[in-house]
Amino acid sequence: MIHRVQHRFMLLPAPSAVAELLKPITWFPPMWAFACGAVAAGTSPDGRVWLVAAGVVLAGPLVCATSQAVNDWFDRHVDAINEPHRPIPSGRMPGRWGLYVAIAWTLLSLLAAWAIGPWVFAAALLGLALAWAYSAPPLRLKRNGWWGNAACGLCYEGLAWITGAAVMAGGAPSLRSMVLAALYSAGAHGIMTLNDYKSIEGDARMGIGSLPVRLGPMRAAQVACWAMVVPQIGVVGLLLHWGRPWHAATIGLLIAGQIVMMRRFLAAPRERALWLSGFGVPLYVLGMLVAAFALRGLEAGIE
Question: What digits encode the pLDDT tens for the residues 143-196?
């Protein structure tokens, strides 16, 4: 028994495999959303620089990385079909090390969030709970594309935005900031659907009901487009109501650019989902920053 335990822990994964498991390329969206929330707070980072830096690390290399590790562990059988080169199905992450990394990163994320402050800890706790609920039984929210994508959108955009706003405000974010965070979370539902096109075959075989599997590629594409556009229109309406017409007009132009690309995407959704992610989604996230600067002026009392 002792020999087996020693042998298991001798098979350590290579640092490159751990880094690949944590998927640094996925950290950008929550880090961007955190930055948008921080901008929207309307306060100067003076005296909070280390908190802002810690918050950026929490949003990306900790909480988001945790969600990736959790997902890879519980998706190892699906990845064996869709992405057999991933660290776990390829054997480069031996034994149960994928699970150990997910647990360790969860605890590390909670410790970092606790050190930053209560609002940040609450947001991180909810985000981590959703990350585990998304991938792990018995909930495994990803089996239903409606619920799974909603959980991802909330984690990647809304909670990260709220965390940034809380760090800068030193407490609860404003109601206006939380409303914008909720709208951009809702829009991220469509972005998550675009990501599901790459794994239709494996998802269908393993009982993962992503929207492209449930609705078919065309209907899922239509839902994704509407899910992205409608919340942004809501943002435009709010900015007009709040007296920020130039910011509203800028976001309107960004929406128009997305719609042009969406028309091309809808002509061949399976082939062009990655293309829309690469060229249309940047316009979406740029609109987030425009909205954040609009709110920054309002929170700071700048006309």
Answer: 999 999 999 999 989 999 999 999 988 888 999 999 999 999 999 999 999 999
Q: Tell me which DSSP letter residue 197 carries.
A: G
How many CB atoms within 10 Å of residue 13?
21
Tokens of 102: 């997910």
Domain count within the chain:
1
CA distance linking residue 28 with residue 35, whole number of Å: 10
Reading phi first (left if > 0) and then psi (alpha if -120 to 50, else beta), residue 225 is in: alpha
Dihedral-angle region of residue 187 (phi above 0 means left; psi in -120 to 50 means alpha; beta otherwise): alpha
Does residue 137 fall inside a structural domain?
yes
Query: Is residue 5 in some structural domain?
Result: no
- DSSP-derived 3-state class of residue 144: strand
Give the domain range for residue 218: 15-300
- Please calculate the CA angle 110-185-23 and round it to the nearest 5 degrees: 55
Cα separation, 135 vs 127, whole angstroms: 13
- Answer yes or no: are the C-beta atoms of 163 and 123 closer than 8 Å: yes
Phi-psi region of 266 (alpha: psi -120 to 50; beta: other; left: phi over 0): alpha
CA distances for 218 relative to 45, 80, 222, 223, angstroms: 45, 26, 6, 9
Q: ∠ at Cα 98 (18, 132), nearest 5°? A: 115
Query: What does pTM read for this prediction?
Result: 0.90
Whether residue 7 is contained in a domain is answered as no
* Residue at 172 is within a domain: yes
Residue length, the chain?
303
From residue 212, how far is each of 46, 146, 203, 278 by CA, in Å? 46, 11, 9, 19
